[in-house]
Structures are given as C-alpha cells and as structure tokens.
Amino acid sequence: SIEQTTEVLLCLSPGEAADLKEGINFLRNKKTGKDFILYKSKNRMRACKNVCKHQGGLFIKDIEDLDGRSVRCTKHNWRLDVSTMKNVNPPGSFCQDELVVEMDEDNGLLLLELNPPNPWDSEPRSPEHLAFGEVQITYLTHACMDLKLGDKRMVFDPWLTGPAFARGWWLLHEPPSDWLERLCQADLIYISHMHSDHLSYPTLKELAGRRPDIPIYVGNTERPVFWNLNQSGVQLTNINIVPFGIWQQVDKNLRFMILMDGVHPEMDTCIIVEYKGHKILNTVDCTRPNGGRLPEKVALMMSDFAGGASGFPMTFSGGKFTEEWKAQFIKAERKKLLNYKARLVKDLQPRIYCPFAGYFVESHPSDKYIKETNIKNDPNELNNLIKKNSDVVTWTPRPGATLDLSRMLKDPTDSKGIIEPPEGTKIYKDSWDFEPYLNILNAAVGDEIFLHSSWIKEYFTWAGFKDYNLVVRMIETDEDFSPFPGGYDYLVDFLDLSFPKERPSREHPYEEIRSRVDVIRHVVKNGLLWDNLYIGFQTRLQRSPDIYHHLFWNHFQIKLPLTPPNWRSFLMHCG
After folding, report:
1. Closest among 292, 370, 338 to 53, alpha carbons compared
2. Is CB count within 10 Å lower at the N or C end of the chain?
C-alpha cells in the first residue's frame, strides 16, 4: 500500500472485554493464530504482539514477578515489563512496539496496528517478460551472490578470502576460482553491514588492487559501514551511502532499495532488487528486517538460516553453563530458528527461496571445541520444512551454481533452471591459509604500547563507557585460555571508570572475560569493535549474576569511537 493503513489485529466482544483482569492478559486471535499481551491498570491499557523484539521468542508468565507486571521470553529469558513496554532484563535494551487499544461504542475492544506505507510500493511496476538467461544468480560463498540483471552485474557481500571476526570464522565453501574476475566485472556491489563476514577487507583489498573505483552501495546506518576504511589501508574511491526506503535507479530496468533492520537499525540492513518488475529480496542477517514488514510474493528470497553467529553459549562457563545445558540450548535454538524461517517464508510466499549467509566454519585447530559444540542448521532441513508447509520452490546453493530466474519462474522442474558446477568441482574447503592473518594479530602482542600498564586507563577512557554498575575482570590468555605469561590481569569498575586492585565492597554485577592475547591487543591497538572477540569466539566468559548486560556489550560491539586511540600521543607522554 502507498497509503498508511490501520489493521485490526484482534476484536473482543463487550463480554470478553469486561472479563479482562487487572494486570497481564494473554490473548489469541483464533482465526489468525496470532498472540498478544494486554496490560490493564486502573488508568489505562497497553498492548503488544506476543513476539519478543530481540529474536522473535514467545512471552510467558514470569513466575519470579511478584508485582504482576512482567513476562519472560522463552528464547533467551529476557524479561519485559508490560506496564512500561521496556525490557528489565537486560536493562537498557529494547522497548516493545505498542499496539493501539480502542474501545468501540458497545464497549468491545479492538487492538489496532498502524502501518505506514510500504516504500517499495512507490512507483509500482508490473512484471515484464524475462528471456531465458536474462536474470541469473550465481552463488559464490557464504552471503556472496553474483547477479546478472540484463546487461548489469551486481554482487552481494563479497567475503571470498581470509578470515572473519579476527581469526574465528573461515569460509566453509571453496569459492569459484574466477571469483576476483567476477568481482572486477561487477557494475555495483552491495554490502549489507560492517561485520567482517560481509565487509571483508582481505577480499576488498584484492578487488581494490584491480579496480579501486568500483561502485559500492551501503545503507545510511548510524554506525557507518565503512567506519574503519582509512585504517584498513584498502583504497576504495567510490563508496555510496544511500537513504533507506528509496528506490535507487541503476538503469531503465534495474533499481534497488536498502531497508534497515528493526532490531539493529544502527548497523544492519537488507535489500530489495527489482528488475523489470521482478523483485529479489535479500534479508541477509537482519533479525527483524524492516521491522517485520516485507514484500510478499517476490520472485526470489534469500536469508540466513544457520545460527551459531554468537559467542553464546559456547564461550560461557560456570553456573548453569554445563556441556549438557549448552548442547540442549543450542539444539533448541537451532530448531526455533528453522521454524521461524519456515514460517516467514510461508507468510511471504516468495516463488523461490534460498538459504545462505551461514556457510562458515571454525576451522583453526585452536577452535576445535567451538567447531564441535556450535552445531549449525542444515539448509536442506530448512528447505524440506518449507516444502512441507507451502508450494515455495527452494534452492540449496553450491559454489558456482547458477539459477536462471526466467526458467525457474516458468517451470521449476526445468533441468536448465539451475546449472550446478561441473562434476568434480571442489565444494568444501579443506585447507585455509592461516599464517598471514595470524601474523598480523601476533604483531600486536609485542607492541610498545603494552610495555606501559597505563594503556589500560588510556584505552577504557577512550572507549567512553561508564556510569554503569558493572565490574569486569580482563585476563589476557594463550591459545588455550590459560593466563598468558607476563600478560595483564586487571579489574575495571565501570561505575566510576576506576581500576581497583580488588572488587569493590558494594553490591555489583561481575563478569570475567578471558581473551586471547593476540586478538585483544590487536583490537585495543586499532580501536576495533569487540565483535572480533565475542562473535569470533576469542573469549571465555563467566558472569555473576547470570544477566546479559546489553548496554555494556552493545557499546563495545557497536558504539566505540569512530577514530582509534591516539597511541602516538600516549607513547610520547610515557616517554
């Protein structure tokens, strides 16, 4: 719709409305199967969908809540105060999106959702005839697709060489041998967000050596996608930052629109590409792409599926974090993710669906435990689940495989609709070039900065996180997470940003973070984000109590200053 609409999500009769109790009411629309929460107090009523904004879990009664105001998410145990619509655990995180509560003239009750116009409906185009071969999508690796769209070529998220997240992630699939030529021939590249399995500086360094002026498009996120470009040393001269929700015209037949994520709008994006009226939707890693409002019946949809892109719970120990608990949690989480993706595909009804952006492996020998513990979803299992519940055609991609959109839309059984790579083509990588990348990390260990213990105060002052009641013990370790000989072991009290010798006597939450010395010093020296540590599995964590400190981790993973610490000035003062 190109106009704002109001959708009635639930109607209660006057009798049902009168039966609502004070406090929390769990409600369901029996026709749609959708669930809602309504909080009733003497002064007002508030309501929301029963879907956790974090990662889509279902809320249930919180048995620890004595005031009758909070509910608990079944996915990660996050707690929502329904009287304020704010999360209370973790504190300072999300606010739940509210619905409008209205009483009709007969004292019945309506739950309404105000829907703004869909931006992709502006200047609508009807699908035109596509010739065979006119639109072809070739899978390269992970989240990287090479799209032929008429006489234009567009590439998504090229990670084709080197690691991601410091040294924690490596490519599962062997990219086609001509990947660099393919990149050089592209007319434009879309990079969804700043995580290094999508924004791969090793890959872009190879590309920039051949074609530094290639047009690259990113969304106008709060944290710029290329915030670290100057420091990376990669020479790219044609980066274009575009506003959200506006068509970008490439030629008379081709346009694209970048949309933000509803959970991480400060960094995550997704994209709609339209050629001759046929839409391709790529939701990439978005948790709630465009706040959950997406185009239906697109020609092709692709999304992540695998899970495992977090240090939780594999890198945690102590308390409930036994190996048995971790295994059960991971199994349950992966199943929930599969069901969520299958339900999303069923709701959106694309003609074709492709699971991608989950083909990574923890291949360095020192991460053997993570590799064995961090079980990921099987794309074929998801595709079978989708086919069981809908008529959507599915595609499990292999490196170098090409989907001909016109053929597949006309006849999904066409033997030429998907051309697989030649027989004997290597699909899975069995060796990785670890050494050059580990050498870069190891170079930071002996840096002059770390001869002076005052670097600790310098770094955390630069980081700018304080006035928060949390004490963290930071321990530098070897490969096996044992204390590094001569390494630093120190406390940071973030309430007043002090560095005490002992934990303070006041009541305080506590975390212990053990980090591999090469990675933590590389991160500190270069002012990098802590996703390299956490998502890259380069830490081991304990916490008491068992509470996720969203404000702390969000700051160090997303909100650090855009310019690195001034170590030159620091060393001059030390000298």
Report:
1. 292
2. C
> Any idea what DSSP says for residue 298?
-
Cα–Cα distance for residue pair 355/398, rounded to 1 Å: 11
By the 8 A CB rule, do 375 and 330 touch?
yes
Q: What is the CA radius of gyration of the chain?
A: 25
Task: Give the Å distances, CA to CA, from 378 to 148, 308, 338, 396.
Answer: 27, 12, 9, 10
209 phi-psi bin (left φ>0, alpha ψ -120 to 50, beta other)? alpha
Residue 89's DSSP bridge partners are 79
List strands edge to edge, sheet with 188-190: 239-242, 216-219, 188-190, 152-156, 144-149, 135-141, 402-404, 418-419
**pTM beyond cutoff 0.85:** yes
- Between 116 and 156, whose confidence is greater? 156
Q: What is the mean pLDDT of residues 399-404?
A: 98
Count of C-beta atoms within a 10 Å radius of residue 110: 17
Residue 153's SS3 state is strand
Which residues make Cβ contacts (< 8 Å) with residue 118, sequence separation at least 6?
Answer: 1, 2, 293, 295
Task: Output b/e per residue, 487-516; b: 16+ Cβ within 10 A.
Answer: bbebbbbbeebeeeeeeeeeeebebbbbbb
Cα–Cα dist 39/21, whole Å: 9
CA–CA distance, 564 with 534 (Å, rounded to integer): 19
| pLDDT the model gives residue 1 | 52
SS3 355: strand
Give 475-508 pLDDT, tens digit per residue. 999 999 999 999 999 999 999 999 999 999 999 9
Collapsing DSSP to helix, strand or coil, 542 comes out as strand
Question: Of 256, 259, 142, 266, which Cα lies nearest the Cα of 196?
Answer: 142
Distance CA 368, CA 374 (A): 10
Return the bridge partners of 477, or none.
Answer: 483, 516
Task: Label residue 347 exposed, middle or buried (CB < 10 Å: 0-12, 13-18, 19+).
Answer: exposed
Cα-Cα-Cα-Cα torsion 311, 315, 321, 324, nearest 10 degrees, comes to 90
**Those residues with Cβ within 8 angstroms of residue 331's Cβ, 6 or more apart along the chain or in another chain:** 375
439/441 Cα distance (integer angstroms) = 5
Residue 217 CB partners (closer than 8 Å, separation 6+): 188, 189, 190, 191, 240, 242, 248, 256, 258
pLDDT band at residue 116 using 50, 70 and 90 as cut-offs: confident
Taking CA atoms, 391 is separated from 15, 318, 336, 366, 421, in Å, by 41, 46, 21, 44, 26
DSSP string, 60-123: EE-TT-SSS-EEEETTT--EEETTTTEEEETTT--BPPEEEEEE-TTS-EEEEEEEPPPGGGSS
Ramachandran assignment for 166, one of left (phi > 0), alpha (psi -120 to 50 degrees), beta (any other): left
Mean pLDDT throughout 523-549? 97
Q: Is 474 exposed, middle or buried (0-12, 13-18, 19+ CB in 10 A)?
A: buried
- Tokens representing 79? 């707690």
CA distance 387 to 384: 5
Whole-angstrom distance, CA of residue 78 vs CA of residue 334 = 18
